[in-house]
Design goal:
Elements lengths: L5 H21 L2 H18 L4 H11 L14
Helix pairs in contact: 1-2, 1-3, 2-3
InterPro entries: DUF5133 (IPR033457)
Protein name: DUF5133 domain-containing protein
Pfam families: DUF5133 (PF17196)
Length: 75
């Protein structure tokens, strides 16, 4: 599997978090569609099938992440 560059993953995670906030605050269809698009790209980029798993996988690949750190897995 191809691995996305950490800078790309960081950008996608930041975009998703921003869009999630915008959608929660404003709930526009445009924000929701963009959030869905970024979520899909994150899933493809990390080889996962849902956004929660994609966010965890992306964060573990970012610089400074500790491979043994499972704190992001807590639900």
């Amino acid at each position: 599997m191809l691995m996305a560059h950490p800078a790309v993953l960081k950008n996608l995670v930041e975009q998703y978090e921003t869009l999630r906030t915008l959608h929660a605050e404003h709930g526009t269809a445009r924000a929701r569609q963009r959030m869905d698009d970024v979520a899909y790209t994150l899933c493809v980029s990390t080889g996962t099938r849902d956004i929660d798993a994609a966010l965890i996988a992306a964060r573990h690949r970012l610089p400074g992440a500790r491979p043994e750190d499972d704190s992001l897995l807590a639900a």
